[in-house]
Amino acid sequence: MATNHQPRAVLVTGASRGIGKEIALALAAAGHNVALTARSVGGGLPYGGSSTSDDLAGIVLPGSVDEIAEQCRVFGVTAVPIAMDLTDPTSIEAAAHTAVDELGGIDTFVANAIYQGPGINDRFDDLSIDLLRTVIEADAIGPMISLKVLMPSMINSGRGIFINVTSGTATLVPRAPVGKGGWGVAYAMAKGSAHRIAGVLNAEFSDRGVRAYNLNPGHVTTDAMRERAKRTGMEPTGQSAEIPAKAAAWLVAGSQDAVAMAGTEVVARDIVKTFNL
Q: Are the beta carbons of 214 and 164 closer than 8 angstroms?
């Protein structure tokens, strides 16, 4: 059986910036080969916004998986950039197959990508059922499409890992409406659905060498948040994306403590603090 000290073949979705980018870099720094997906491969694409009235919609945020792959290669690993549209099931399936082909199999899957666009944080009165369906299919069905392709390879490796990057919106009740500290119902429903995958997969596949986690990154400062803060003259809130990246790399390293947490929700800041990462 393969050991945890051997380089892994990892697929990280949504890796052009933010949490996905930092997770990819952390895993590459640990010596693992990575396949990276995003809509933006050769350059930044217009930001979709977080609601139908988001004034940031259309701006181009920095970052592409081509750039991040190049940064990963500095660590002497193989890094493969792959275009993937989370709203297109065919694109999701093709990206997973490409990752398997390019890296000779995938043993670790980090599902980080989420739909960015109208509907994600719309209020109930403004949310159409079509947009609701788009958000849920992208964020909850999307990872399942990838897993259907990847699971045979993960099982064959004898040391498969699935990490779903979850959110407090999946389990918490907002203290205020969206726009005042809360979040939209579509995003909550989508993340809540995706949150249920890891526990079930861990129960079904742990006896075949696959462990699964929900990784709660905490409140992380994003590029969109920085741009919004710049426009309002306020300081962006949140922690660095390096915190969930350190936690993800720790889970992948596979210590006894990490293995014991399989099937659970792991809070990134708690892991970093407890294990002095």
A: yes
